Structures are given as C-alpha cells and as structure tokens.
Amino acid sequence: MNLYTTLTLRYLKKNKKRTIVTIIGVILSTALICGIGSIYESYMDYQFRQTIEQEGYFHSAFYNVKKEDLDTITKSAGIAKTSISEDLGYSKLNKDKLNLINLKAYNKNGFEMNQVKLKEGKLPTNENEIVLSERVIPLINKKLGDTITLNVGKRIDENGKGIEIPILKENERLVDTKEKEYKIVGIMKKPYAELSEISNGITYLEPNKPFEKDTLDAYILFNNPKEAYTIATNIAKTLGLEVDKSTDNDESMIYNNDNKTHYENLYFNEYLLRLQGASLYENINKTFNKILLIVTLLVIVCTVVTVYNSFSISVSERKKQFGVLNSIGATKTQVMKLVFIEAIVISLIGIPIGLIVGTFGMDLIFKSIQTVFNSQFISDINLRVIYNPYMIVGSALIVLLAILVSAILPAINCAKTSPLESIRNSDDLKIGKVKNSKLVKLIFKTEGVLAYKNLRRNKKKFRITLFSLVTSVVIFISFSGFIDLFEKANRVNIGEINYDMRVWYSGIREKNDIVKDLNNIDGVNKISAINPYGAETYINENNINKEYKDLIERRFSKENKNGEIVYIFNNNGINFVGDKAIEELELKTGSFDKESAIKENGIILRNKSDNSSSRKQSEISLTNYKVGDTINICKRYIDKNDKEVRVPIKLKVLATTEDFLPGYRWSTYMGIDFITYNEVGEKLGYKISDGDIYIDTNKTKKTRDDVKDIAKKYGYDVSDDVEDVLEMEEAINVMKIFVYGFTVVISLISATNIINTMSTNINLRKKEFAIIKSIGVTPSGFNRMIYLESLLYGVLALLYGIPIGLLIDVYMNEVLGDAIEIGMVLPIKAVLISIVGVFVITFVSAYIPMKKINKENTIENIRQESI
Predict the structure, then answer these.
(1) Domain stop point among 243, 268, 293
(2) Do 297 and 232 lie in a common domain?
(3) 470 and 576 together in one domain
(4) Beta carbons of 558 and 564 less than 8 angstroms apart
(5) Coil/strand/helix, residue 353
(6) DSSP strand E in 506-638: where?
(7) Model's pTM, two decimal places?
(8) In a 3-state reduction of DSSP, which class is residue 283?
(9) Helix, strand or coil, per DSSP, at residue 730
(10) Which residues span the domain enclosing 650?
(11) Separation of alpha carbons 866 and 838, rounded Å
(12) Could you tell me if 254 and 268 are in contact, meaning their C-beta atoms sit under 8 angstroms apart?
C-alpha cells in the first residue's frame, strides 16, 4: 500500500461520519439509476410476454394462402420460423346453438407461435388427437382420454352466404358436415381472442399428408423485426395478393411504408413489432424513444446531482487540508491523486451496495406491493424482476464518472488557489457588507438576519445545497406527471371495466321484474339497465372545439341554417338509465336531479370522443358545450307507413361527466354521449325497457349461475365475460404494481436526498454554529436561525422546482401526444405533495442534527476541523 492510499484511508477512518454520508449519497444514486432501470426492464419483459401470449409469437401472417404458394412464403430470405394452420370448420357441441367449436389444425411450430397454453394433458401429435379449450369441457361432459365425435362443417346465414367472422348470427346453420372422431389429449387455457359463443379445438397438422382444404394460413417470425414490413409486402407482391386503397381510419388496415398499400389477407402483429421498435408508424417509434430518453436523462441528472452534492461538499470542506499539503511541498498532481484514490475507495464501497439495493431491493418492493393482491393473481401473471447486465454495468459507470467529476473539479479549483488562501478557506465567502432583509428581521429577529446573511455570504455552498433540493422536487413532480400520463394513456388503451355479465333481449321488450330479481341475487354488486338510442345532433360553429375544426370539417357534413353554419354529428348516443346508474356517475361540473331533468329535458353530457387509428390513439373533446347550454338533436323513426319521421328535440346540459356508463369501455368514436333518466326518455317518446342489462358481480360461480337462471326464466340471453374482465383487471393491476414501485423508488430517493443534503449541510457547519452560539445567541434563537434556513431552502426549492417539473411534464404531454392524444395531464396532486413534503422533510432534516448540536460542547466544536 503506497503513501497516497495510506493517507486516504486514514482520513476516511478519522472522519467516519463524513465518509458514511458520502457513501450513502453514492448508494442512493446507484440504487436510483439501477432501480429505475430494473423497473423499465421488468415492465418491458412483462409487456413482451403478455403481448406474445395474447397476440401470438409471430410478426406477420398470410391468410387463405393457396397450397402451391406455401413454399414462396416459407422459403423467403430473412425468415426465422414459420407455422402452418388449417381451418377445418365448425361443429356443434350439443343441441344448443350457442355452443360452437372452431376446429383448426396446427403443425409443430403452430402451437408455439399461436401460444397454445396447456392446463392439463399434452399437445396432439397426430390428426386423431385434439386439445380443447377449457370452456368446452363443462359443455360436453368429457375428460382427458375420452373420445369426442364432431360433425364439422361450414357456417352459412339464412341467405346461404358463408360466415367468416367468429360471432354467431341469427338463424345461422352448418352445411357440408363431416363426422370426425378425436381423442381428447389436452385441455388448453382459453385463447385470448376466444369469444364466449365460439370455443376452440386444435388437432395436429400432419406434415406428410395432403391438406383437406385448398387454402391455409401461414405465420412468420423474422430474423430482424425491422424487416417485417419490407419482406412481407414483397412476398405479397410476389403472390399477387389483391390490393385495397383505403385510409388509415380503418383499424384493420396495415400499410406499406412507401405507398400506403393494403394487401388483402396479409396481417402484421403490430403490437409485438412496436415493443421491438419495429412499428410501421414512425410516430410511435419516435414517441417511445423520446419518452425513454427524457426519463433516462432525468434519472442520470438526479444521479449526478446526488453524487456531486455528497462528494463536492466533502472535498470543498477539505480545502484547508489541501492548502497545508501544498504548503509543505505537495504538488498539484499529488493532491489530485489523493482525491482520485478517495473517489475510487468510496466507489468500491458505495457502488456495489447501490447495485444490490437497486436490483434486489426492487424485487423486495415488488413483492411488498404484490401483497395487496391474492397469491393466485401473482402466480397467474408470473411477474418477475429482470436484471439486465448492460443496465447494471451502465449504472455503475455513470455513477463512477459522476464521482470522479465531483471529486476532481473541486480539487482542480483548490489546486489553482494559493496555499495561504486554501488554509484560510475564505474564497467561498463574500467579504463586505451584505444587504439586509426587513421582512426577515421583522419575522425572525436578529437570529434570522444572521441566517439570511450567512446564506448570502456562503453562496457556493448554498447553491450546491439548493440545487440538490431543486433536483429532488423536479424529479418527484416530473416522474409523478409521467406516471399520471402513463395511467391515463393505459386507461384509453385498455378501456374501463365496470361489468362482468351482460343480460339482454333481442328486440323491444316490455318492462318486467328481471332487474328486481337480479338485484336480489347475493353477490350482485351493481346492475344497470340501459336504453341506448342514436341521436343525430346539430352543432353550431361556435360550439365546436376550434382545435379540431379541420378534423370536424373532414368528418362531418354541414349546412347553413338561418345564416349560421351548423355541423351534423351523426354518431352520438342518448342513453336512458335508472336512478342508481346516474347516482354512481361522478359529475365533473353541474348537478343533476330527476325533477329538473324532466322539466328541462336535462342531460348529463359526456364530451369525450374516440378518434383512434392504427397510427395513433386519441381521446378528444369535439365540442365546448358547458352547463346551461342547449343542444339540438333529431329523433328519427319509421312510422306505420314505412316513412321516416324526424322529430327535433332540444336538450339542456345540466351536468358533465367523464365517467363511463356500465357496458361502455371506450368513448364513442367521433361522437358525444348524452345520459339522462328513463322518465325523460318516456317524456320524449322513446321506448323504455329493460332489454340491455349490465351486471357487476363478485365473480363467483354461484352468483353467475344464479344470474343465468334468472335470465333463462325471463327469456333473456346471457354473456358471461368474467374471464375477459379478470384478464383486463390483471393488466391494470400489473400496471399498478409497476407504477407503485416507480413511485416508491422516486419518493424514497427524493426524500432521502433532501435529508442527506440538509443534514450534511448542517453537520459540516458545526464550527460556524459554535462560534455564533459563543457570542451570545440563545438556544431558542439558534433554533429560529436554523428553521429560517430550512424555510428559505424549502421556498426557493419549490419556486424553482415546481415550474421546471411542470415544464418537463408539459413537454412529455406533447411528446406522448404524437402517439396517444389524451389532453393535458398535469400532476397537481404531486405538486401539493411536494409543497408539504419539502417543508416537512427540510424541517425534520434540520431538527435532528440541530438537536444533537445543541447538546454538544461549544468549545470542542470551535476546535473541530472535520466531522
């Protein structure tokens, strides 16, 4: 061990408190950047696995491919893996028309690429074996190993036209049926896209046997996802697939980058491609990269500031020691070497601990948050923390670089200073008269004036401390805004979940007691009978949102009425509901009662519209209607003579809401919604019934069976969507786990950084405080002085931090708006928390060391050079 290392280690041991404080700062910084990286990697891992499970592990698919064209697809360059699927047809499981099974055959790769997940048994290995959806088993009274006979045929409607969509139609039937016998070898989890009316069964597609059908489906996984669109569209051209020219308003259309061409029967797994940075739409890739860059820069800035604050204060306080060393012959290089060795020693201790805290600590945080969910949920989602070695090494390098810069810069500055000035250590102090503050003197008396002047004299130290506090505020507000933005965007993407069963009757049904009977079922939480009607709406030019005028001009027709331009919105809905459904709506503005609604044709306005496309998800406000405004709609119906009758109606906006009625997951596409009481509908001449009922249950089998029994009694159909709802709840709960984990990390880092900064700042000034106390300042006066400093730090940190944090959030809103338009989302709650939190934390951080200093010997503190 050389002399430099010996001196450094001796100094670190002698000044244990300062060393510990510096190491804590390094640990926090490393844990922050590593922890945030772990959250990001873990969330992307979950999204990737979830997307593959729901959408399939393939990049593109060709449907209805001729058998002779298969080689053109499977033998193309750039393809990593292909699978073949044959649609064999449909079969009834029993006499009930609602129980159909769609029979398909997969080759070996097909089971993996289409994500067939077994619950029991094994996958089929020949054409006489079958794996059935878990929904099928209760309907056929069969078990593993049993044989099932299916009459497989083609679906046609009442006009003899073939049915391709996986939704049952009235009076459909099966034709050209063939009897097939299979051995049940496996039970698979319900496929994500499987509807309640039609289940799935899959057999094996023998590679060396002729195909039953003339066309097949081919699924492709590419070596490079970014080549998916190029290679697939070239294959489409080679195959001579038909071309459709269309607009990007159709969600089913996926285009070639060059000429916006849509090839029929060519599908791209856009959700998977987006996660791999290979989306067709550049705005999505750019938005994702920009958001990632902003978050990364914020994390790095916070990391650097935390390290710099911890280390630079320590080095700056040792100028006197460096001056002494220079005075006895130490060169600038030797002083720099001492500082460098100290930085390396601190790094070797702090960085590994920080990496452990940031990685395994995140695992602990996730598990702690997951305790709010049941164990079945945790096992189902298979949530895991991902440790990316590149991210860990990158975190360590960033922190190490920050430490070296934080240590070397003050040392260079000291090396430029003469030994005498370094020993005096007065270059950071402002010599001469410092302007007084009358307000400070009035509130905090003499001690407050001392504190105020002291801060102004020690500007460099003051700025370092303040900058650290400002950074904590900025990080907390900006990340909170990012989380709020993320949550709202996720809501727009996934939709609302407010029911799990639907009971309905096709056609007009007279009022009956079904709602009353359903309400009496134990386990029914909410129930709403909704009467939805279309409402052609006439909107004056001054009532449209000018921000979207160009969009409105393109989408809607307009006419001149009495010298005014009127736009005709034709995709609106007026919903007549019961008292309970209206009571559960959270009103944004206004108030709503039945008496006023009936008297004034009053409605609750939901002024949010969906304007999503393949390129961009968007929830916008097309109008600027407010409480008190009148809206003109047209009621249309066919009379006895088959003539259309149009009845103008005036509605009055009594309240507004952003809540959804049960059964509505997304906003109406390019339309607005009106909600009011059933009685208002009856007054306006609408037919009110209990034909469409949405139910939120406790999701137990008994409750669901009871609902089905009541529905059967009254002749209603039932849609049991509980499994789909549980899947959506799972997605939302997973998002919450990551959001809460993110919030916990940011809150802990921000709070700890403030505590570390304030306590270090006070502890390093023991000698200064002891001198002040020695000239007669009382303990209470000394306390007031420290509290004033804390107050000034807090006020200034908020004055700088809040605007900067909000500006970053505004920028993130604009960036995200290129892919998901949801309006401005500002973290007002985070601002309020930061205001309260900064003052509480700064005062607590000052109180603890202050109380300790008050108990210490003043003379000893005056003599003290280091802590």
Answers:
(1) 268
(2) no
(3) no
(4) no
(5) helix
(6) 524-534, 536-540, 557-561, 564-569, 573-577, 587-590, 602-606, 609-610, 617-620, 630-638
(7) 0.67
(8) helix
(9) helix
(10) 501-720
(11) 28
(12) yes
Number of domains in the chain: 4
- With tokens 């309970």, the residue in question is 580
Separation of first and last alpha carbons in the chain: 26
The pLDDT of residue 751 is above 80:
no
Largest Cα separation within the chain, whole Å, is 113
Burial of 376 (0-12, 13-18, 19+ CB in 10 A): exposed
Which residues make beta-bridge pairs with 604?
655, 675
pLDDT digits (tens, 9 = 90+) for 629-673: 998 888 877 777 778 778 888 999 999 998 887 777 677 778 888
Angle at 162 between CA 161 and CA 166, to 5 degrees: 130
Q: Are 154 and 259 in a shared domain?
A: yes
List the beta bridge partners of residue 606: 673
Last residue of a domain, one of 212, 234, 268: 268
Residues 140 and 283 in one domain: no
pLDDT: which is higher, 807 or 280 = 807
Would you state the pLDDT for residue 312? 62
pLDDT at 253: 42
The verdict on 550 and 689 lying in the same domain is yes
Of 59, 432, 66, the residue nearest 229 (C-alpha)? 59
For 495-517, the three-class secondary structure string (H helix, E strand, C coil) is: CCCCCCEEEECCCCCCCCCHHHH
* Residue type (1 letter), 299: V
Asked if 658 contacts 587 with a C-beta cutoff of 8 angstroms, the reply is no
Check: CB of residue 187 under 8 Å from CB of residue 119.
yes
User: How far, in Å, are 78, 345, 355, 358 from residue 348 at the CA level?
Assistant: 46, 5, 11, 16
What's the CA gap between 1 and 79, in Å, rounded?
A: 58
State the amino acid at position 86 in one-letter form: E
Q: How many CB atoms lie within 10 A of CB 366?
A: 21
CA distance 706 to 687: 28
For residue 867, pLDDT beyond 60: no
Residues 6+ apart with CB under 8 A from 401: none
Give every CB contact of residue 281 below 8 A, 6+ residues apart in sequence: 614, 615, 616
Give 476's contacts (C-beta < 8 A, 6+ positions apart). Answer: 746, 747, 750, 805, 830, 833, 834, 837
pLDDT at 225 over 70: yes
User: How far is it, in rounded angstroms, from Cα 497 to Cα 222?
Assistant: 36
Per-residue pLDDT of 580-617, as tens digits, reads 788 888 898 999 989 899 989 999 998 887 776 555 56
Amino acid present at 347: S
Mean pLDDT for the stretch of residues 405-434: 64
Query: 808-819 pLDDT, tens per residue?
Result: 888 887 777 666
Residues 589, 681, single domain; the answer is yes
**Amino acid identity for residue 807 in this structure:** L
> Are 171 and 248 part of one and the same domain?
yes
Residues 481, 478: Cα–Cα separation, whole Å: 5
